[in-house]
Amino acid sequence: MRKDRLYLLTFLSITVIFLLISSVAIRYFVKVAADKVLETQLEFSKREARQVALLISNQLENGISKKETISSTQKSIENSNLEAGFVSMFDWSGKIVCHPDVKQLGQQISTEESLISSVSDDLTSNDLFDLLQNQEDATDSLNVNENEPKSEVVYVYPVENSDLIVAAHANTNRVSQQIKSLRNNFQNILLIMGFVFILSSVITVRLIGSTYEKKLEVKNQKLSDEVINLSKLNRAVDAYQQKVIIDKPLKDDVSDSDPENVTRKRILTYMRHELLSVSTQDIAYIYTESTITYVVCFDGKRSTSNSSLDELFSNLDNTYFFRANRQFIIAISAIDKIVRYGNNQLKILINPNSEVDIIISKNKAAEFKQWLNL
To answer: Which of 269, 294, 305, 330 is the most exposed place for a label (fewest CB within 10 A)?
Structure first.
C-alpha cells in the first residue's frame, strides 16, 4: 500500500511540475511565435502601403485623373479585407475614398482606429501584440462577436503631390485567429509530450524502485539470517560458558591423573619488576603488541609474559581458551557479545574491554563455531 501511494505521489508531483513549466513555456513560445508573425505582417503592410502610394503618385504624374486613379485602386483592393492585412485610402479630411468594403466608402475614418497612438514608424510587433491582447480581453468581457470584421490602421503613407493618404490595416480578427491557432498547436504538442514524459517517468521510477526493492529484500533477508545466526551463536556462548564452569573441576581431575593431558593451572608473569603467578581461571584474554605478550585478568590487571602466544596456547585448556587470531587468545568466560563485522567476519566483545578490536576472520569463524559445538 505504501509503494502504491509513493508511486501516486510521484505521478502527481511530476504532473504538477510539468504543468507549471508548461504554462510558462506556452506563454513564452506563443509570444515568440506571435512576434515573428506580427513582425512579418507589419513589414508586409508597410511595404504594400508604400508601393500603392508610389503607384498612385506615378499615375497622377502621368496625367491620369484623380477620379480614374481612385476608381482603379478601388477595383484592385476590393474584398481584400479578408486577408490578414489590407490597404485603404482617404483624403486629408479623413473621408475614405478607397476601401475593400464598399460600405465604408464616403465615411469618415473611425476614431476607434489607431491613427494617432499606434501609427508610426516606431510601431513594433510587441505593440501590435499588446493591442491584440487588449482587444481579445475586451471581446471576452463584452461578449462581442469574434466574427465581426475589425481592423487597426498600423501604418499611413502620403501620396506625393496629392491630398491622398494610403493606410495599411491589420485584420485583427484574422491575426488573432492565427495566434490562437499557434497557441492551440503548442498546447497540443506539450500535452502529448507531457503525457509521454510523465508516463515514461513513472514507469522508469517504478522499474528502478522495483529493482532497488528486490535488492533491499535480498539484503534484509541476509541480515535477518545473520541476526538469527548471531543470536544462536551468543546463546551457544552462554551455554558453553555454563558448561565449562560446571565441567572445569572434572577436567582438572582428569588432567591430574593423565600426564599426557596436563594443562597449566598457573602462568608466570611480570608486573614491572614484580614476579606474579596468575591462575588460568583468572585470565580473560592474552594478546601481543609490539612483540610484547600481555596477560589481562578479569579484574582488569595487566601483566607481561616472556612466552609467545603459541607457547602459552599449547599449554592452555583448549575447551576454555580459543585462539581468535594471531594477536589474541580469549577465554570463554570473557566473551560478552558476538557481532557481525565486515564480510562474514565476527567481532568479539569481551569483558574487561579491549582497546584493540578482536576480529575473527571468515575462515576462522567456522572453527570458532565448531569450538562452541555448533
So the answer is: 294
C-alpha 56 chain-centroid distance: 65
Residue 163: phi and psi, rounded to 5, are -100, 20
pLDDT digit string (tens) for 170-210?
Answer: 877 777 787 788 888 888 888 888 888 888 887 887 788 77
Cα–Cα distance between 163 and 44 in angstroms, integer? Answer: 24
Q: Which residue is it, cell 492585412? A: 85
Using the predicted structure, report yes or no on whether residue 143 has a pLDDT greater than 80: no
What phi and psi values does residue 82 have, to the nearest 5 degrees? -80, -15
DSSP 214-267: HHHHHHHHHHHHHHHHHHHHHHHHHHHHHHHHHHHHHHHHHHHH-GGG---SEE
Place of cell 596468575: 278
DSSP 259-309: GGG---SEEEEEETTEEEEEEGGGEEEEEEETTEEEEEETTS-EEEESS-H
- Kindly report, residue by residue over 225-270, the tens digit of the pLDDT: 777 777 777 777 777 766 666 565 545 554 444 444 456 788 889 9
Q: How far apart are CA 66 and CA 57, in angstroms?
A: 10
Mean pLDDT, the chain, whole residue set = 79
Q: If we measure between CA atoms, which residue out of 371, 331, 326, 370 comes closest to residue 348?
A: 331
From CA 85, how far away is CA 45, in angstroms rounded? Answer: 6
Q: What is the DSSP string of 338-363?
A: EEEETTTEEEEEESSPPSS-EEE-HH
Name the helix (H) or strand (E) containing 333: none
Q: Scanning the structure block, which residue is given the C-alpha cell 594471531?
A: 326
Which of 348, 2, 3, 1 lies closest to 202 in space, CA to CA? 3
101 DSSP 8-state letter? S
Query: For residues 286 and 296, what is the distance between their CA atoms, to the nearest angstrom?
Result: 6
So what's the pLDDT on residue 331?
92
Percent of residues in the chain assigned helix, strand, coil, to nearest 5: 55, 20, 25
What DSSP character marks residue 108?
A: B
